[in-house]
């Protein structure tokens, strides 16, 4: 048997844990039933109990190398503490890493959830074998990560990959960050519902209005379902989504020129209705994509005023994540192998 | 004495060469009088003669480690060939590296001019001691580079840092790349003159109109001079410049979260008239800058929906280049030391 590590996905509502061998084979995946948001002490007890159980079960064949924990929020990587998390209000300032390391005696790594998802997709998912890639997660907001040479590129303060706040509409919708027209105001679950409610209020979307009044929890899934049924206002919402998201991606591709951009998160299921408009926008707005597009439109960059050094003619791939909700589990298990 | 290397700045009109010690001391700087644009063979002969002279003059004290050549255009780094250069029309496809290496028997490195400028500023200029930085050069267009751990980050095809084609106005001015609203359509020497001509045509800028009719070569310098004298239409042009450039920088800071962004190139002399509006825009539009601004406005990022992992509270510095036209000479001389 092989050495193994533990990946933990500490979501806002679920605690999921997996044991994964160092060559990327899943040994076991468990769901821990516990109330996460309120009190960290109790959750950490249950988490450690589950890790101990997995460790003793698989420990005779190989060594436990450590555990990596993906957390939705702002993490102080040096201190091993959650600085701020909208979904885990009781966890701010709690010494998560220290408390778990003390109990288990194995190296513990905390990381932002979009960044572990990127590691998971790079290790065992859509970007397997691709050393330099970016991941964009579409959820209530937009999460982002840059992976260089197989490792998270954090930037100076761990904030590299803050794609959701790229401006796509200079005088657009006000964002919580104080800016107008941030990408995540147009390309996120929250944005989909907002656009639908605005269309309903304007009397432009009878089917959406019906769905909203029938459903107390009117969500982006409902709106996606209507789009799939051909409802024009619902489709228009995803076209606007695709336009904004494509503009954001075009900027990222121009700045980074990476081999692959993986799109994940819950809202990425709507890929079929937003991706056509997204690609249209990227093609138009990214000189780097135009010069490296897979279906061979090479040469466009040379006609323009780009002062660039072209090394090879490799292609830019923009694609969907393949690990779904498990990307964070695999990415968490990857962390101890990289450190 | 110390080992040394040669930096070559192969501009559209000038050929400049410098010998620099490996600890960054300038030994000598020469201007070679030759017609550059037309025929590479002759220019390479003169370049090699000058390098040979420098080499024999300083070679008794130390070893020549190689030469790095900054070129305005698209360079095939693997082949050592200029793929395309608007300023050096006769050079496309010419085996520059091979021809020089054959003559001199020392390692030769070609690089895009904005990228060598970045290396120069990182080695001996504004970003001395800063390992991770970006450079933006403001000229007829916008050049860009990313430096990570003291080396150029090229991306997959050498196109990383293509900042000038970031969209800042979704339905804005048409760009040569086919997109609308690219940053360099608003923040470059070309853009300054275009905006001035539009204001003149609209009858909104009497002083600019006077200057344009008096001056056959109506340039961005003339417009800058009028702005410095307090001419309101000229000042308005640089405010628009600053707004677009600030929006572009805000996106870059959100994506990269680097320690320093250095602004160089000929048009950066107008810093005093465009920078106030530029900083205003960056502050408003970059959640990463807001959280890491030097005058301590920390905390803004935490109030928003950013899912980020904050590692430290280090500050983001956006500043002017200090080496002026010599950044490319120093950066060229740096190349052999990095390879």
Give a description of the structure.
The structure is a homodimer of 339-residue chains. The first copy, chain A, is of the alpha/beta class and 339 residues long. Chain A has two domains: 4-125 and 327-338, Nucleotidyltransferase, domain 5, CATH 3.30.420.40; 133-321, ATPase, nucleotide binding domain (Nucleotidyltransferase, domain 5, 2-Layer Sandwich), CATH 3.30.420.40. Chain A contains eleven helices and twelve strands. Chain A has helices at 40-58, 96-104, 113-124, 189-201, 206-214, 220-228, 232-256, 271-285, 287-292, 300-303, 327-338, and strands at 4-10, 15-21, 26-32, 64-71, 74-76, 81-84, 108-112, 133-138, 142-148, 151-152, 260-264, 317-320. In chain A, α7 crosses α8 (271-285). Chain A is globular, with a radius of gyration of 21 Å. The two termini of chain A are 22 Å apart. Residues 296-312 of chain A have low confidence and may be disordered. Chains A and B meet through β5, β7, α3, β9 and α7 of A and β5, β7, α3, β9 and α7 of B.
């Amino acid at each position: 048997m092989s050495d193994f590590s533990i990946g933990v996905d500490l979501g806002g509502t679920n605690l999921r844990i997996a044991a994964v061998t160092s060559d990327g084979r899943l040994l076991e995946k468990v769901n821990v039933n516990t109330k996460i948001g309120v009190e960290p002490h109790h959750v950490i007890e249950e988490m450690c109990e589950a890790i101990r159980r997995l460790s003793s079960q698989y420990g005779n064949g190989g060594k436990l190398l450590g555990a990596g924990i993906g957390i939705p929020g702002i993490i102080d990587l040096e201190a091993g503490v959650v600085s701020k998390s909208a979904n885990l209000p009781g966890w701010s300032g709690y010494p998560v890493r220290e408390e778990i390391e003390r109990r288990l005696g194995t190296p513990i790594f905390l990381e932002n959830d979009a960044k572990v998802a990127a590691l998971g997709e790079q290790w065992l998912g859509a970007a397997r074998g691709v050393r330099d890639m970016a991941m964009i997660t579409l959820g209530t907001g937009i999460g982002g990560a840059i992976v260089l040479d197989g490792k998270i590129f954090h930037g100076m303060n761990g904030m590299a990959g803050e794609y959701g706040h790229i401006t796509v509409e200079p005088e657009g919708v006000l964002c919580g960050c104080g800016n107008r027209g941030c990408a995540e105001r147009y390309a996120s679950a929250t944005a989909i519902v907002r656009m639908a409610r605005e269309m309903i209020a304007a009397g432009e979307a009878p089917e959406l209005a019906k769905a909203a009044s029938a459903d107390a929890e009117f969500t982006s899934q409902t709106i996606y379902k209507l789009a799939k049924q051909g409802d024009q206002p619902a489709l228009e919402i995803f076209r606007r989504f695709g336009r904004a998201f494509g503009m954001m991606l075009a900027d990222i591709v121009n700045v980074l020129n990476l081999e692959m951009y993986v799109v994940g998160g819950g809202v990425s299921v709507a890929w079929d209705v937003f991706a056509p408009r997204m690609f249209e926008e990227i093609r138009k707005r990214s000189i780097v994509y135009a010069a490296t597009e897979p279906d061979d439109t090479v040469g466009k960059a040379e006609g323009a005023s780009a002062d660039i050094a072209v090394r090879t003619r490799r292609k830019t791939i923009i694609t969907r994540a393949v690990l779904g909700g498990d990307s964070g589990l695999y990415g968490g298990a990857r962390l101890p192998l990289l450190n």
